[in-house]
Amino acid sequence: MSKVPDYNKVDEKIVEKLKEIVGEEYVMWDNRPMMYSYMARGIMGIRAGPPDCVVRPANAEEISKILKLCNEHKIPVTPMAGGLSGGFALPLLENGGILLECSRMNKIVEVNTDARYVIVEPGVRAGEVWAYFKKYYPDWAPPIADGAPPAATIMGDAIERGFSLVTGRFGPQADLVMGMEVVLPTGDILRTGSWGLGGVDEKYQGEKKDGHAKPFYKYGLGPDLHSLFFGSQGAMGVVTRAALKIVPHCHYKTVVAFGFTNWEDACEATLMASKYECGISDHMVMVQGGNWWLVPTRFQKNKIPKTYDYWAKLGIPEYFMNFECWAHSQEELDIVTSKLKKVILEDYAPNAKGPVREWKLHPIQIASRLKKPNKIAIPYGQWEQGFLFITWYTPWKDAAECVEIYCSKMEEYKFPPVMWIASIDHCRECIVMPIFCFDSRNPEDFERIEACETDVTKIFLKKGWVNYRPNPTIHAPLTYAQAPTAYKLLRKIKEVLDPNMIMHPGRLAFIKGVEDPLEIPQYILGFRKQEA
Amino acid sequence: MTEAKTEVAEKKEKVGGLKRLEELKESLYRCIHCRACRFSYSGEPDRKGLGEHKGVLYEGMLDGCPAGHFYGWEGFWNAGRMWMARAVLEGDLDLTDKKTRQQMYDILFRCPTCGNCSMQCENNLPTVDINEALRACLYEAGVEMLPKHEGLRKLIDTKNNPYNEEHAHRTDWVPDKSVIDDPDAKIAYYVGCTASYRMHNMAKATVELLSKLVKKGIIPKYTILSDEVCCGSVIYRTGQWDVAKKVTNINVELYNRFDIVLFSCAGCVRTFKIDYPKFTDKEIKFKPMHVIEFLADYLTVHCPACGKYNDLDSKYCQNPFCPKYSDPKISKVGGGEPFPLELHENKIRITKKWTKGPVTWHDPCHTVRHYCHALKDKAIEKTTGEGDNNMWKIYVPSQFERERWIEMPRAIMRAIPGLELREMYRIGENSLCCGAGGGVKAGYPDFAWNAANERLEEADATGAEIVMTACPFCELNMGQAAREGPDGDPAGAAVGGKFKEKVLDLLEILNEMID
Question: Which of A52, A154, B271, B334 has the fewest CB within 10 Å, making it most exposed?
Answer without folding.
Answer: B334
